[in-house]
Amino acid sequence: MNTAISSIRNLGPAYEEACRQAGIASAEELRTLGADAAYARLLQTGTRPHFIGYYVLVMALQGRPWNDCKGKEKEELRKRFDAIKAEVRPQHSSKLLAELDAIGVRATPADLKTL
Fold first, then answer.
1. Got the DSSP string for 67-84?
2. pLDDT digits (tens, 9 = 90+) for 34-63
3. Are 47 and 18 in contact (CB under 8 A)?
4. C-alpha to C-alpha distance for 22 and 30, rounded to whole angstroms
């Protein structure tokens, strides 16, 4: 079964498109991957890291409202987000983008589409 990612509470068409670009085609696949692995794939394919986007995904996969994350739980999620962000390097379509990333200059998703 291939249920749309946007059928998951809190995840709309933009999140679904980002997932599609990361090779995640369905809600079932997203749930199987889990929030951490799925978010890492999003980052690898050019999604800019954003803590709210990460914890919205975590809350969505738990069936909770996106703003239900507070206190100690939010602090723990921030640590997981920072660890994912530190481990993941985006895959680049050109040597130039790879070199710029290596020296700390990040390309935006719009930059990646033009190359």
1. GG--HHHHHHHHHHHHHH
2. 999 999 999 998 888 999 999 999 999 999
3. yes
4. 11
